[in-house]
Amino acid sequence: MKTLVLFDGVCNLCNRTVQFIIRHDKAGRFQFASQQSEAGQRILQQHGIPTEAALADSVVVIEEGRVWLESDAALHILYRLGGVWRIPALLRWVPKGLRDWVYRWVAQNRYRIFGRRESCLVPTPELKQRFLDTA
Questions:
Q1: What are the domain boundaries of the chain?
Q2: Residues paired with residue 4 on neighbouring β-strands, in sequence order
Q3: C-alpha to C-alpha distance for 84 and 10, rounded to whole angstroms
Q4: Are 32 and 18 in contact (CB under 8 A)?
């Protein structure tokens, strides 16, 4: 089963998160697409997620047709990574309103805190097959 992560391609925090996932995803189950890419835009549209909402959320996770946003998306990624990464995923028991409030604060301030890129992440040739729309 593949897990698709749609990320803000110009966000440094988001790019570091993708690199973290790749480093810890030994099974290669995660695939990625920048929300700004054609594939990312098409997938957002297919799932009825407005681009502005997705970029504000900064990460969208899709698995078997199900969509996770905000803190649910981040915690689902940790859960799917397995091993010790399932421990922080236990935060899903914290009330969603509180989790999402913290998540939204970080998302709204991510460019100021972590910076911004001029262009989207370009995967290395070894990782190209993990990214959609990188032909």
A1: 3-127
A2: 31, 62
A3: 29
A4: yes
